[in-house]
Amino acid sequence: MELVASRFRKYIENAFWLIFEKGFSLFVGLVVGITVARYLRPESYGLLNYSISFAGIFSAFSTLGIDQIIVRELAKEPEKQNELLGTGFVIKIVGSVLMIVLMIVVMIFMDRDVFTNSLIMIVAAAEIFKAFEVINYFFQSQVMSKFVVQVQLFINTLISLTKIGLVFIHAPLLWFGIIVVLGSVLNAAGFIYAYKKREGTLWRWGFRKRVALALLSESWPLALYGVALNIQARIDQVMLGNMMNNYEVGQYSVALKFIEIFGFMPIILMNTFMPAVTKAKAIGDELYKSRLVNLYRLMFLAFLLVGVPIYFFSKDVIVLLYGKEFEAAGYLLSLFSLRLFFSNMGVGKSIFIVNESLFKYSLLTVIVGAVANVAFNYLLIPLYGPQGAIGASMLSFIVSIFLLDICFEKTRFNQKLMLQGIFSFWKLNNVA
Asked: What is the pTM of this model?
């Protein structure tokens, strides 16, 4: 009994540190983001976010989908710690180099100035140092995230203060790109410090070709999933920068970053109620259907509680926080509030996908969603600018979250449950 209680405390403590770090990062990120945006103004802030988004599209190549697989293997076979960490580290380094080469090839065919290309490459260099995140995977596998979180909290606070310092000394835009790399370097140093303090030297790590091939053979669908997901999430800012201008990207980025703050809510609901839905599936179909419907009701209700106030007060909030120059972002934020409906329902649907083991279908939805997003952006941005980019993302969500369900028997069943939940949200009951 004592052992069970000890393990429970260990998991609770681990969850506390992860939640605290996430909440702290969101708050500090908002304050620093407002300060930097007001200083750089829409044009330069747009160029910075264009560069970050461009590099972000290719960032899945730097991980190659091995992250969660390494965590799982470390938890299953802790005695293989050194070869798993060493092999994972090498894979991520090679992936980062591959990412940069691919970026250079794409940039050759793009009509961007030297300064923009330089800023993109500086931001992309940060991915190389993220190879040390394999250390974080080790601590996750041992349910000891507090060791890494404590170090990261210190480093992220230091980086945030540095960004504010750059504002006070009126630093040029390039420095804000360099600070992205510096943050990655310091986080790597923090990972190394935490690992050496807890486990000792990194020199015991070793690369094993056999392990690398095993990891990559299993991870390629996740890598493909990551590429498609990054395209769907970031292509709007890149296409907006290429087809319009950096000013529009700046306005769009402010609205997007603000709405992303509320992305944690459906995730918390998902993590809270997933066990109840999973248990219901084992008990019987009727209870399983009932809990899925109630979950969709809850997700839709969460959208109403958050999205409706944002829709009506977005302009006033943005002008108050970011200044009159970003007034256009307030109008964009009102449109982004409607996009919360799709993100909430998509997160809720992921519980159904996991319980039915529809992982190939999940990969299909992300790929189709990414292709649809690019196509809709191409059509709508020239006509409507940033409003068109938001409309494109919502249309791509309609395709990937709702319309694709019509094509498969299992997902048609879930589509009915989703629609039932949406159109009867006030009947919420028996969620747990």
From this structure: 0.85
